[in-house]
Design a protein that fits this description.
Blueprint: H1 17-32, H2 47-57, E1 69-74, H3 77-98, H4 101-107, H5 118-121, E2 124-131, E3 133-135, E4 141-143, H6 147-164, E5 168-172, H7 179-184, E6 190-199, H8 215-218
Antiparallel strand pairs: 1-2, 2-6, 3-4, 5-6
Helix pairs in contact: 2-6
The structure holds 3-iodo-tyrosine (IYR).
């Protein structure tokens, strides 16, 4: 492939240390307000808001700039019902047969089960597909790189963008997810990565009282000794 033309980095903005500190603190405060929500209102959310959040996700760093993601925005009630039905079938098997006891024990405090009404209640389901390989116009396959990492980063940015827009999300991972290819008519080179349920919280929605790990628990500092 021809080498890209290199242009000056004109979009970068350096911040004075005080502002840098303020921005980092403000961002943390905003992110600490994000909660995964399982009870959704059916209030509509404009499509252009979701599209802009998806465009923000599409700025994610990724392997060889292949941008190996597809975001299917499902707002059609009929399709949402079909997704709910198929997901609940998979989930019934998960909760009643397949899941090892250790996994069920780990989930118990969240109170999740096979019932997924949010798949119909929420105005949008964003089904994220990872493009495992690209099919060229002559039908040959071209490998994509770091697909899971790339799609994972983009998904994190999408969740952040939707939170910034004043919406709530639920990362839903029915397993297995192959049914989503059939229901949404996606080709074989795409595999469903996760379903991001998105909208307004139901009035009176509750969330589990849980804590996040401290800086000591999640960061290891390797620095020059002072
Ligand atoms: N996919 C199932 C189970 C589930 C698994 C994990 I790990 C969670 O953090 C939450 C749920 C479900 O959606 O119910």
């Amino acid at each position: 492939m021809a080498r890209a033309n290199y242009i000056p980095l004109s979009t970068y903005e350096e911040l004075p240390p005080e502002e840098m500190r303020r921005e980092a603190e403000a961002f943390l405060a905003k992110m600490r307000r994000r909660r995964t929500v399982r009870e959704f209102s059916d209030r509509p959310v404009p499509k252009d808001v979701i599209e802009n959040c998806i465009l923000a996700a599409g700025t994610a760093p990724n392997g060889a700039n292949r941008q190996p993601w597809r975001f299917v925005m499902v707002g059609d009630p009929e399709l949402k019902s079909r997704i709910r039905e198929a997901a609940e079938e998979e989930e019934r098997q998960f909760y009643q047969e397949k899941a090892p006891k250790e996994w069920l024990d780990a989930l118990e405090h969240l109170g999740t089960d096979e019932n997924k009404p949010f798949l119909e209640d929420a105005p949008w389901l964003i089904v994220i597909f990872a493009e495992s390989y690209k099919v060229l116009s002559d039908g040959t396959k071209a490998k994509n790189y770091y697909v899971t990492e790339s799609v994972g980063i983009a998904t994190g940015m999408l969740i952040t963008a939707l939170h910034y827009a004043g919406l709530v999300t639920l990362t839903h991972t029915p397993s297995p997810m192959k049914f989503l290819n059939h229901v949404l008519d996606r080709p074989d080179n795409e595999r469903a990565f996760l379903v991001l349920v998105c909208g307004y919280p139901e009035e009176g929605a509750t969330v589990p009282e849980i804590t996040k790990k401290s800086i000591e628990d999640i960061a290891i500092v390797v620095d020059r000794s002072e």
